[in-house]
Amino acid sequence: MTSPPSRAGRRCHAALNPLHSLLYFSPELPREMAALGIGEQTAAYLATRAAPMGRVGAGAVSAAFYSFRPGLVARHLPAVWERPRPAAVVEARLRAADGVLRRLLGDRTVESPQMAEAAELALRAAHGCRPHGRTVYAANADLPTPHAPHLRLWHAATLLREHRGDGHVAVLLREGLDPAEAMISHAASGHGQHPAWLRETRGWSEEEWNAAQARLRERGLLAGDGRLTEDGVALRKAIENETDRLDRAPYDALGGDGTARLTDLAAGFALTAAKGGAFPSEVTG
Fold first, then answer.
1. pLDDT above 90: residue 190
2. Which InterPro entries would you find in this protein's record (predicted)?
């Protein structure tokens, strides 16, 4: 089995991650959370993503998720666990994933041989993940693997997304970028989500956001027009390359051919989902 070429893991992640994250923009998830007594959007997101870790509090979630203002997290956690048990949230998010994938992809695709193939490839990659120091990944890895192929794929995409994300946080810490600085510099690279949407959904005030921009300018990473300087571009490139290095294990386990095949299959599913309106324009517009 040959190893995948440079950046193959990053490309595979880019194809798979939308199949995980589309859940958070779906109408199915708020309906499931509302049925559990969680009606506020931020509370629903935090509970959905944190539930595999159990009755975790604001400090641990702020540390693990990294990008959220701790005060925003503390408004919802641990109070959210006074309503449903974390296990009930885990079950509800899987029901929501089933609903949104069937709606966006259609039953024929969900039940296709290609879906089953993608699920098994993604799970094979996930089995190569390394749990040490990766809190969110490890919590999800403790969950049982669903039976249905499209849910197996969603579960595997979640594992691979959190594995990469945990490693990415470690790199941000090494490079001395705090949460707001990390989001601003990523958005300025042209590859991140819309900065206004990021600031609002992560709870940072305009003053805090402006202060983070000023710190980046003082480091010579951000120009006055909001674009990255040459040093800023180099830093973001180094961050992504080091994240790739820390995330090689699952794709080495899958091999070059398997990684390429999974990328193709996942990209096709993700494109269909995007054309079906999986992601609102304000996220990237």
1. no
2. HTH_67 (IPR054058)
Where residue 270 falls (left for φ over 0; alpha for ψ -120 to 50; beta otherwise) is alpha
**Residue at 275: amino acid letter:** K
Q: How many domains are there within the chain?
A: 1
Burial class of residue 119, CB neighbours in 10 A (0-12, 13-18, 19+):
buried
Block residue for tokens 């880019």: 14
Which domain covers residue 201, as residue numbers? 8-279
Angle between helices 230-246 and 8-21 (to 10 degrees): 80
Nearest to 104 by CA among 269, 224, 214, 236: 269
Q: What's the pLDDT at 280? A: 85
Give 136-189 pLDDT, tens digit per residue: 999 999 999 999 999 999 999 999 999 999 999 999 999 999 999 999 999 999
Query: Under a CB-based contact definition with an 8 Å cutoff, are residues 194 and 282 in contact?
Result: yes
Q: Looking at the domain assignment, is residue 2 inside a domain?
A: no
Other Cβ atoms within 10 Å of 158 Cβ, number: 27
